[in-house]
Amino acid sequence: MPGQYVTVSTAGEPFQAFVPTALPPDPAIDWSPSLRRRFEKAHLALGRLDSISSLLPDTDIFLYLYVRKEAVLSSMIEGTQSSLSDLLLTEMSAQPGVPVDDVEEVSNYVAALEHGLRRLKEGFPLSVRLFKEMHAILLSGERGSTKQPGELRQSQNWIGGTRPGNAVFVPPPPEKIADALSALEEFIHDHRQETPSVLKAALTHVQFEMIHPFLDGNGRLGRLLITLILMSEKVLQQPLLYLSLYFKTHRQEYYQRLNQVRLTGDWESWLEYFAEAIAQSANNAVLTTKELIARTEQDRAIIQQQGRFSGSLLQIHRILQQRPIVTAAWIKETTGLAAATIQTGLQKLEELNILQELTGKQRDRVYAYGQYLDILNQGNELP
Questions:
Q1: Based on the number of CB atoms within 10 Å of its own CB, is 121 exposed (0-12), middle (13-18) or buried (19 or more)?
Q2: Torsion, CA 67, CA 69, CA 74, CA 77, rounded to 10
Q3: What's the CATH class of domain 3-288?
Q4: For strand 356-357 and strand 325-327, is the pairing parallel, antiparallel, or unpaired?
Q5: 111-115 long-range CB contacts below 8 Å, 24 or more apart?
C-alpha cells in the first residue's frame, strides 16, 4: 500500500492523517504494454526536445521566457491571476493590471527555479536542504511571510474542508515529516535501487505532494522538483519543458490521479497520465521553439532590407526575443544605444508591423513584439 493512516488529535478532535510508505512502490509497478509504450513515447519526446535546445541560436534568450512561461502556468494551477505579459511588465518596472501579490508569486517561482538550477550546476545535491532554500524564495514577500518560508511545518495542515476532521486529505503530522523527506531524498539518490529518471520524477512528485511538508507552496515546489530531477539526471540540458500547461489543461484529472495513488495504490494510472504529460509537453515545446525561430528569422530578413537602419534595428530585435515587452528607456539601459536611435528604431519596427505600441500615450510608451508573444502565450490564457 502507498501508506498508512495514523490517528491524530487537534483541539480535542481526532482525525486520520496519511503517512506515505517510502519509495519505490510496493508492490512494484505493473508495467503493462500500454504503460511501457507511453514511457517510450515520453523518452523519445524528451530526446527531441533536448536535441533542439542545442540548435538554438542563443539559448539564454529562449530560456528567459520558457522559465517564465512555466512559472505563470504553475501558479495558475493554484489560482493566481497573472499572465506572462503581467510578469514581463513588472520585471521592467511598468505597472501591471493585476494584484501585485499575484505577480510577485510568479516572480518568486522564477527565482526559486533559477536558484535550484544554479545550485545543481554548482554541484549541490538535490536534497531537503535545497527544498528549503527554494521554498524560502518561493514564499518570500508579503503573501507568504506568515507561512514559515524555508521551514518544515510545525503544525498540521490539510486540503479541502474547514478543519482536519472534515478535510479531503490530511498529510502526515509534523513529527513524521523529517523521516518521510529523508526517505524521499534517499530514493532520489538511488540508495536502495536505481530508478530511471522519468519514472523517478513521476514518483517523487506524488510522494512530495503526499508528504506536503510545508504550510504553503507544496504544489508549486512539487512541480519544480520534476524539472530539477530531469535536469540533475541530464535528461534535459536546459529547462525548456513546461509540464504545467498539461497539468492546467487537465487539472481535474491531475488531482484525481494523485488522489487515486493514495486511496487505492494505483500508481499505474498516475504514470500513464504523467508519461502522456511529458510526451505532449515536450512535443509542444519543440513546436513552439520552431515557431519562435521561424518568426525571428522572418522578421530578421525584413529588418536586413532596411538599409542604414538595419544595424540598430537588429540590436533592438535581438533584445525583443528575450523581452518581448519593452520601453525605450529599458532598451537604452540594456543596449547603450542613443535615445534618438532607439525612438527611430521603435517607430520603424512599428511601421514594419513587427512591434505594437500598447499604451496609446505620447510618453512612457510600452511596446510589444506581438506575434512572438502570441506564440509564447499559447495555453497561458487566464481561466
A1: exposed
A2: 180
A3: mainly alpha
A4: unpaired
A5: 111/137, 111/138, 111/140, 112/137, 112/138, 112/220, 112/221, 112/224, 113/67, 113/70, 113/71, 113/224, 113/227, 113/239, 114/67
pLDDT for res 39: 98
Which helix (H) or strand (E) is 39 found in, with range? helix 33-53
CA quadruple 227, 204, 213, 189: dihedral sign: negative
| Domain 307-376 CATH class label | mainly alpha
Report residue 109: phi and psi, to 5°: -60, -45
Cα 203 from Cα 23, distance rounded (Å) = 8
Tell me the sheet residues that pair with 326.
367
- For the chain, the structural domain boundaries read 3-288, 307-376
- How far, in Å, CA of 197 to CA of 190, rounded? 10
Q: How many CB atoms sit inside 10 A of residue 123's CB?
A: 6
pLDDT tens profile 34-62:
999 999 999 999 999 999 877 776 777 67
- d(CA 340, CA 373) in angstroms, rounded, equals 26
Distance from C-alpha of 181 to C-alpha of 302, rounded to nearest angstrom:
55
